[in-house]
Amino acid sequence: MANVDADWNVFVDESIHVRGDFIVVAAVFAEDGVAERVIAALTDCGFDPASDEFKSSMTMKDAPAAQRLRSHLQIILGTCKIAVTVCPVSERKEIATYIANLLSAVDLPPSQRIARVFVDEGIRQTNAAMPDGATVRFGCDSRTVSGIQLADCAAHLISTTLLGELGLTTKMVAASTVYDGQEGEIELAWTLWATVRYALSGSTPCGKVDEDGIFEPLMKPFGLLVSDLCSDAVKAAVADRLGSVWVGCIH
């Protein structure tokens, strides 16, 4: 995990879902060197980093190279932290303002700071205040700022989780992908959440305390901001899946 005195690079991208009437914006906090890890993942999976990139819209069915690349990026995300903001599709023009507000409220220790923020080219610039001292770049191309590909992956994973919580996707995968040796199937949305749950977790416990004074392994999110204009269904889905993070054993 992160160095206690880390300066963070933050990569931001969105995932828009009209059928659920929500937009998920993921802000991925990573230390220096993450770009090289993304480039290595692309190369290892047979892609050319100079011309190819991970996109959540990539065809995954019958595409083992794309599936491997997504798995590689999920592993990298597990070493990062992820803050999330959710708003309705009608607020697309306000995304950057939500990002600014989100970054000011993440669960960062005093010894850590946001040094650089890279925002995908599809997100309009805002005049809202970004973190003090941070260099902010809007209009980033994910081929040249490869960390944006991590944010794309994170936004898609979290969106799929919410779509599952809303009952709008029911895709199943082999249970053995999470539980070694277990037969049967399990919801894809749940497995995707499981791969990034530590990255979504903050450092503040919110679970019950037992008689020995030990907290239940349930944590507040690292960063979560939900628009008041989201539907009640979306707010409930976000609260159920992202409002707290289980960091105990799931096996």
Would you kindly provide a brief summary of this structure?
This is DUF3800 domain-containing protein. The chain has 251 residues and is an alpha/beta fold.
Please describe the structure with a list of short key phrases separated by commas or semicolons.
251 residues; alpha/beta; Nucleotidyltransferase, domain 5; 3-stranded antiparallel beta sheet; 6 helices; 11 strands; 31% helix; DUF3800 domain-containing protein
Walk me through the topology.
Blueprint: E1 7-17, E2 22-30, H1 34-44, H2 64-77, E3 81-87, H3 95-103, E4 113-120, E5 135-140, H4 147-165, E6 172-174, E7 185-187, H5 188-200, E8 201-205, E9 218-221, E10 224-226, H6 232-242, E11 245-246
Parallel strand pairs: 1-4, 3-10, 4-5
Antiparallel strand pairs: 1-2, 2-3, 6-7, 8-9, 9-11
How would you describe what is shown here?
With 251 residues, this protein is an alpha/beta fold. The protein has a single domain (7-246), classed as Nucleotidyltransferase, domain 5 (2-Layer Sandwich), CATH 3.30.420. The protein contains 6 helices and 11 strands. The protein has helices at 34-44, 64-77, 95-103, 147-165, 188-200, 232-242; strands at residues 7-17, 22-30, 81-87, 113-120, 135-140, 172-174, 185-187, 201-205, 218-221, 224-226, 245-246. It has a 6-stranded mixed beta sheet with strand order 5-4-1-2-3-10, with helices on both faces. A hairpin with a 4-residue loop joins strand 1 and strand 2. Helix 1 runs antiparallel to helix 2, helix 2 (64-77) crosses helix 4 and helix 4 (147-165) packs across helix 5. The chain starts with 6 loop residues before the first strand and ends in a 5-residue tail after the last strand. The model has no long low-confidence stretch (mean pLDDT 90).
